[in-house]
Amino acid sequence: MTATPSHGIHRWHGKTALVTGASSGIGEAIVTRLVAEGMRVVGCGRRKERVAEVLAAADPSGGSTLAVGCNVADEAAVRAMFAAAKDRFGGVDVLINNAGLGHAGSLADGTADDWREMLEVNILGLCLCTREALADMRSRGSFGQIIHIGSMAGQRVPPGAGFYGATKHAVRALTESLRMELRDAGDPIRIGEICPGYVETGFAEHYFKSAEKARETYSRFKVLEPIDVAEAVVYMLACPEHVQVHDVLMRPTDQPT
To answer: Which of 106, 159, 167, 218 is the most buried (most CB within 10 A)?
Structure first.
């Protein structure tokens, strides 16, 4: 069979991706990788200065990137971010919902503040960004892609991480629900989720509120690196238009669960 001309990451050259949680870790790796592939990138995070540093390293000229300070749980801020992307680049073709966080704690001892923050960022923020991206893509009648960065915690229930795991199970449900909505509408926009296991980022230190516990977590075996997840993003984008990779589950080879 003749390969479809639409196959390959090159067809996204000059298109615009919006990456949430772009200030470090997986988000930073995704931003850097997509800029290297010739995409324009809008990066957002609560720390706008740090996002700007990441984008400047990836795109010293600044011509293909835009840094935005945004708390994805703030609806007005999300709307303003998409308006800024439209004003600068004409719209968003790819959305990478990478922003997310966790707090360790049992269901018996967890705090409402921790639970609320996980709900607002991991679920509400993802939904707000998805809604605005869909409206933008549909207004231009363009082919687009939405990728949620989930977690293996959304595929099974990790001990001691019940609430965080619940938010990631919700992301899994939202991914499938949107796939069905898009299919029923005959919409060309694709949706997929990447669920990594342990990745060495700042997540564990924030989760455990302990640098020592984070070092212990990442030293038990060789864990994934942020670039590994970024490569999975490129793979999903590179598939031809008739191929929708719905789930990518990736663990460190030595991760037992």
So the answer is: 167
